[in-house]
Amino acid sequence: MPQITEIFFDCDNTLVLSEELAFEACADLTNEILEKRGISDRYTGDQLIQDFVGQNFRGMMISLQAKYNFDMSKEELEGFVKKEEDKVIAKLVEKAQPCVGATEELEKLAKSNKYHLAVVSSSALRRVQASIKKVGQDKFFEENMVFSAATSLPKPTSKPDPAIYNYALEVCKKKPEETVTIEDSKSGALSAIRAGIHVIGYVGSYPGDDKKIEMTKALTDLGARVIMKDWSEFQDCLAQIEQLEDE
Predict the structure, then answer these.
(1) What pLDDT shows up at residue 97?
(2) Residue 247 has pLDDT above 80, yes or no
(3) 140: closest CA among 103, 179, 168?
(4) What is the rounded CA–CA span in Å between residue 148 and residue 244?
(5) Segment 17-40 mean pLDDT
(6) What is the strand order of the sheet 146-148 is part of?
(7) What is the Cα–Cα distance from 133 to 51, expressed in whole angstroms?
(8) Mean pLDDT over residues 165-192, rounded?
(9) What integer is the mean pLDDT of 200-211?
């Protein structure tokens, strides 16, 4: 059986605690779009996380149009995508923190030199790079080993579409069965599973035990092979997947 040689990492709320900051910025723009169309509903950052976690802003806007039955021109959408990216990056550069324990595990992996490492995110490339740089994780990834569904592909997409994982596998010259990814959202896990990649579901960034239990079930039901509650469990989770590969 193939050995694990590649580890992919989702970024938002997996490596860097960025979702809450990003959704704060998104809520302002989402409400501006709704107001412009005479729709009375308004979102807070938390409500957006409930509805759209794991999607990038472009994906969220497509879902929003479907939910409220309106159309947005390509030009208007791209204008808002750019505006959102700038707002979010400003917040991240000011306030982003690493997920507890993530940097320490990256350090161990870099020292072991056993695996190739890459970041595979739905978010815009500038945003992912700003996030990992702010928390000092950029040094663990070669410059061209940060992949973005919003930026890296010829046609922008968002997880759960597997396109970004398929692209990352192609660039890294890896097979799905020799690859593990760490994902915290349903859309992220589904994207990797559709690409045939082993998933470690990470629930450590979710607030409260109830949400962690709910997400453990959701990620397991989708097909995550192992669930990780804290980054300190990472080596054990990886060993479990490697054992599955040996059987």
Answers:
(1) 97
(2) no
(3) 103
(4) 29
(5) 92
(6) 146-148, 116-121, 6-9, 179-183, 198-202, 226-228
(7) 28
(8) 97
(9) 96
- Cα–Cα distance measured from residue 225 to residue 204, given in angstroms and rounded to the nearest whole number: 16
pLDDT at 227 over 80: yes
Q: Which two tokens stand for residue 33?
A: 């779009």
Question: Which H, E and C letters describe the chain, residue by residue?
Answer: CCCCCEEEECCECCCEECHHHHHHHHHHHHHHHHHHCCCCCCCCHHHHHHHHCCCCHHHHHHHHHHHHCCCCCHHHHHHHHHHHHHHHHHHHHHHCEECCCHHHHHHHHHHHCCCEEEEEECCCHHHHHHHHHHCCCHHHCCHHHEEECCCCCCCCCCCCCCHHHHHHHHHHCCCHHHEEEEECCHHHHHHHHHCCCEEEEECCCCCCHHHHHHHHHHHHHHCCCEEECCHHHHHHHHHHHHHHHHC
Task: Decide if domain 6-17+97-246 falls under CATH 3.40.50.1000.
Answer: yes
User: How many residues in the chain?
Assistant: 247
pLDDT tens for 160-173 read 999 999 999 999 99
**Residue ranges covered by each domain of the chain:** 6-17+97-246, 19-95
- Quote the CA–CA distance of 229 and 240 in Å, as a whole number: 15
Backbone torsions φ then ψ of 181, nearest 5 degrees:
-125, 155
